[in-house]
Amino acid sequence: MTLSPAEAPSVDRIGADRPRSVRPCLTELRLSAFAGHRGVGFGLGAVTLFTGRSGCGKTTALRAYEALARLGAGAEAGEVFPDASACVPDRARPDAQRRRGFRIGCTADGPEGPVRLDVAVQAEPELRIVGERLTAGGLVLLETALRDPSRRTVQAVWHTAGSASVTRGPLPDDRLGTALLPLRVAGKTDGQRRVLAAAEQMVVALRSVFACDPRPGRMRAPVPMGSGRLLGGCDNLADVLWRTRAECGRRHALLVDAVRAGCPGPVADVLARPLGDGTVQALLDRGDGHHTALRRLGDGELRYLALALVLLTGPGVLEVDPAGEVPAAMQTLTVLADGFDRSLDPHQRRELLRLAVRMGERGHIRVVGAVSDGSWITGGGGVDGSGGSGGDGVKVGEGVTVVHLEP
After folding, report:
1. InterPro entries, from UniProt (predicted)?
2. Contact predicate 143/178, CB 8 Å
3. Going by DSSP bridges, is the β-strand pair 401-404/100-109 parallel, antiparallel, or unpaired?
4. Could you say which DSSP state residue 403 is in?
5. Predicted model pTM
6. In the chain, where are the structural domains located?
7. Residue 370 pLDDT more than 60?
8. What does the pLDDT look like over 198-247, one tens digit per residue?
9. Do residues 236 and 226 make contact, with C-beta atoms less than 8 angstroms apart?
10. What residues contact 138, with CB distance under 8 A and at least 6 apart?
């Protein structure tokens, strides 16, 4: 799929008139030239769902978001793009030097106002970040460009507003310059401090990301205890349940309420039981002395339970790398959930979405996901054949940004 600006996907913002959070967060993802996308930008809300048929680019959009997040956390380009050629737009032709690449970008809102980041990556003949621009309030705060292809550096220029208007220096071509600015900018002038504040806002908005796609087949068996934080595939769900139940009774009670709302049959508790061999097994307490092991649950129940746990926890429980120098109260965790509705029945997807919206309203959690059919979100047929509202009259899609993609 290749989209021109005139063919940009439509965006529905249901309940978008909400006060902006002071916590840095991404409000736009731009795919200027990335895989099947060209010249498009997607507005992002507290809960954003990409919808469309297979092959329309939903997973690609999430992959671009995750790539920016990893670059913002300081990862090398080779780690972020192991198959960089797959990110080059369809039918892109090499230039005279046989170079091909792609361009992605985003906008982070927060205390400094909207800050834009645009990145140009050369994928062939060798991977390198060849251009980057950080702007705020119409002012270019950082700009890099590849001047000498024989060197593994780019020439960087950043705003100073002191005795000299800008400062020039080399930066490595395999890392995001914005993430390196705190190591290079002294912060002695108002201009330098503005650069640092904008870069910090962008990095904080990017790096606290948890890419999550629960794999039920790996969640049914007992797992070793003490494995640490929850993995993206939720393979170690039983061990994390053991930890969270002991550490935070309030959040665990909220999880039990969520599981009770989304899973059939009575649910009195969600347990984790050590088996004596160094492993732990997760179970549902049915309230009458009967326990149901996770191995007996269906894929939808397991995915629902895992995603509910993710939404109700935070960076201390999930396998993420938040900005340690910024207080947790000033950070927002973004959950990237490909196949958000995969294997879920209509009732489960409704309850999970409503949980995501409730957590998003608090400002600590944001969700960017992909669903195959978005009609149930916006009310086109609803989740139970009666419209887009739940049993309490609350519209399912309220507070959700829906991005419709076409192949």
Report:
1. P-loop_NTPase
2. no
3. unpaired
4. E
5. 0.88
6. 1-208+321-407, 217-319
7. yes
8. 999 999 999 889 999 999 999 999 999 987 789 999 999 999 999 888 88
9. no
10. none
